[in-house]
Amino acid sequence: MRSAAVRAGWSRGLIELRQSFTNGPELFSHFLWPMLMLVALFFLRDRDFGSTGFLLGALALPSILGMNAAMGMVSMSQQLTADREDGTLLRAKATPNGMVGYLVGKVVSVAGGLLADLAILLIPGLLIVDGLALGSAGGWLTLLWVLLLGVVATLPLGAVLGSVFTTARAQGLIQLPVLGLIAISGIFYPITALPDWLAWIGQVGPIYWMGLGMRSALLPDSAVVVEVGESWRHLETAAVLGAWAVIGLAVAPVVLRRMARRESGSKVAERRDRALRRIA
After folding, report:
1. Could you give the C-alpha distances from 164 to 11, 114, 168, 278, in angstroms and in order?
2. CA 144, CA 217: separation in Å to the nearest integer?
């Protein structure tokens, strides 16, 4: 029975992913953020980082790829909150093993959308930015394990955040702290240029480590001199992302079960009435 729910969730996720590229507003959102990042890379492409001789554009592109992958937790949170508000989650709860199928579907659709967004950013980014090292099989292998481990670390966190907020308006509050964390995670400028206390805070979250892992995969070995301790710190990257994955996978099922138990038709109707009053 559970395997049937997994298969149904897989099919649901593929359908949602396909619909996101055929629906006008969702298709626009797939291209908007990568295009904004490409504009930023265009202006950074010829700027040097201090006296190192490395271009900021080359340092920023892998970091932005890691940041975009980490932002999957925001996408997961937004979709969960929206489905909770319109009653989709309640209908999944009423179906045998429906929550299993629902979560599998969300993971498939969000992860698939992330991979597409990364390709939309990476392919033209390679034409804009010079100074990347793309010929190493080890580099692509590093990119793969960092991406997979990062997605496992961040998507459950997104499910937890989506369980906390009851409305899409309230869920929007998460954007501010996430943007703040991005600013101190060494995405657009190496974290070694920040004050030590800010650099320590930035290294607590997964965004910095996904950016670091992507830089280690796509930059030449000589670029390590701009990193903390002049090291790619692969073991630390795996340990931190692995810790976030364990925390998320342990907490998310508990939080989601409690949230599902609290859902009812009357609560969905109440949230819908509030939304209609705001529109009116």
Report:
1. 27, 23, 11, 21
2. 9
Q: What is the DSSP letter of 46?
A: T
Q: What is the pLDDT of residue 235?
A: 95
Residues 6+ apart with CB under 8 A from 236: 209
Supply the pLDDT for residue 48.
Answer: 76
Residues 217-259: pLDDT tens digits?
988 888 888 888 889 999 999 999 999 999 988 888 888 777 7
Calculate the alpha carbon distances from 156 to 74, 161, 208 in Å: 11, 9, 18
Answer for the pair 151, 69: CB distance below 8 angstroms, yes or no.
yes
Tell me, what DSSP letter sits at residue 194?
A: S
Provide long-range contacts, Cβ within 8 A and 24+ apart, for 226-230: 226/49, 226/52, 226/54, 226/59, 226/190, 226/192, 227/190, 227/192, 228/191, 228/192, 228/199, 228/203
SS (H, E, C) 114-167: HHHHHHHHHHHHHHHCCCCCCCCHHHHHHHHHHHHHHHHHHHHHHHHHHHHCCC
Q: What are phi and psi of 83, to 5 degrees?
A: -70, -30
- What is the distance between the alpha carbons of residues 63 and 57, in angstroms, rounded to a whole number? 10
**Contact between residue 114 and residue 73 where contact means Cβ atoms under 8 Å apart:** no
The span from the CA of 241 to the CA of 275, in Å, is 37
Side chain identity, residue 11: S
pTM for this predicted structure: 0.84
Residue of higher predicted confidence among 204 and 58: 204
Q: Which of 189, 186, 237 is nearest to 213 (CA)?
A: 237
Question: Which residues, other chains included, contact 196 with Cβ-Cβ below 8 Å and sequence gap of 6+?
Answer: none
